[in-house]
Amino acid sequence: MVKIAIDAMGGDFGPKPIVEGCIQALKQKLFIPILVGKKSEILPLLPKRYRDKISIVEADDIVSMDDAATDAIKRKESSIYKAVELVKNGEAQGVVSAGHSGATMTLATLRLGRLKGVLRPALVALMPTKNSRKSIILDVGANVDSKSEHLAQFAVMGGCYAERMFRISPTIGLLANGEEKSKGNEVTKAAFKLLDGYKGFKGNVEGSDIFNGSCDVIVCDGFVGNLVLKASEGVASTISGLIKEYIRKSPIAITGALLMRKVFKLLKKQMDYEEIGGAPLIGIQGCVIVSHGKSTPKAIKNAIFQAINYVDNHVNEQIVDRLEVLKNKEI
User: Fold this and answer.
1) I need a surface site. Which of 30, 34, 42, 137 has the fewest CB within 10 A?
2) What H or E segment, with its residue span, contains residue 45?
3) What is the pLDDT of residue 315?
4) Distance CA 148, CA 191 (A)
5) CB-based contacts of 119: which residues, under 8 Å, 6+ apart?
């Protein structure tokens, strides 16, 4: 049975939503949860009937959002350090944390180490598309600057994630300022050459392809990816606000909104981070899911599900195999 270490202290609202999310996950799936944090705060939140189903590992330090990410490596008594150590020591197979994302990624990379052949890990985000199937974009924040060989590896790792987690034969594209082979900067042009001929690689794609369903895996460096992610969140929030404002001002719009309620509900579900749970950091030993600091119990539950599925679907094993193929140019 899969064991998941959960940083109980890292979120913006303390351990309560994290413990509740863990309980919700247990009601739906069989797994072994290990909550890491202050036992004196966690235990009162656990119903008696779950106390024999959930382990608690004591950690009396918390890496806050104001702390430097690099400080986490020295904070050996912190909840996120101890959660990562459980995976390093083979006591858990995955980590879920809604705490300091930089600290989580730093610890995962330095303490767990990269998979064989991986130059750099990448953070994955799932984006809504018009055909209801989500697209994958990476990297969205683990690496500000990337070389062409890093982008090529991101493409392979993203393809493995899509193939294993979604059971599809994914198409893969490099994010550029045009579809033509001549478009892009020097880094993407060099990455294009490395990927040319790789199974599923369709060449350059544009920003609109992230949402129109024409490409399953979109590759870029972490600087560009993070801007895309934050801009998308801003657009979604603005559109939602505008719709509410128009409805408030117009009686006719209210009638239309009532008729469109189901459509709006489905759209919200597709764009809601709670439905995804968190972003996997791929390319490292084990499994690490980076959740939003404001994660609700539902978001934590889905982050745990994502970690379980990642482990069960042997994503890491496929990444190692495919990178060897890329290295040997057998594409």
Assistant:
1) 30
2) none
3) 95
4) 4
5) 149, 150, 153
Q: Are strands 201-205 and 172-175 parallel, antiparallel or unpaired?
A: parallel
CA distance 72 to 54: 25
Sign of CA dihedral 33, 37, 38, 41: negative
Say whether 262 sits in a helix, a strand or coil. helix
Handedness of CA 102, 104, 107, 113 (dihedral sign): negative
pLDDT at position 277 is 80
**Which tokens in the block code for residue 120?**
């750099």
**In this predicted structure, what is the pLDDT of residue 331?**
43
Query: Topology of 119-275 in CATH?
Result: Isopropylmalate Dehydrogenase (3.40.718)
Largest distance between two CA atoms of the chain: 64
Beta bridge partners of 126: 136
The domain covering 1-117+283-314 belongs, at the CATH homologous superfamily level, to Isopropylmalate Dehydrogenase (3.40.718.10)
Contact 2, 31 (CB under 8 A): yes
Residue 177: half-sphere exposure toward Cβ, Cα within 13 Å: 7
pTM of the model: 0.87
Dump pLDDT digits (tens) for 120-178: 999 999 888 877 778 899 989 888 889 999 999 999 999 999 999 999 999 999 999 88
Each residue of 65-108: pLDDT tens digit? 888 888 889 999 999 999 999 999 999 999 999 999 899 999 99
Domain ranges of the chain: 1-117+283-314, 119-275
Separation between Cα atoms, residue 325 and residue 330, nearest integer Å: 5
Q: Which two tokens stand for residue 286?
A: 């084990």
Give, to the nearest 10 degrees, the angle between helix 222-249 and helix 261-271: 160
Instruction: Name which residue leads in pLDDT, 126 or 274.
Output: 126
What φ, ψ does residue 212 adopt, rounded to 5°? -90, 0
User: Of 157, 122, 94, whose CA–CA distance to 319 is shortest?
Assistant: 157
Q: Exposure string (b/e) for 204-228, b if CB count within 10 Å is 16 or more?
A: bbbbebbeeebbbbbbbbbebbbeb
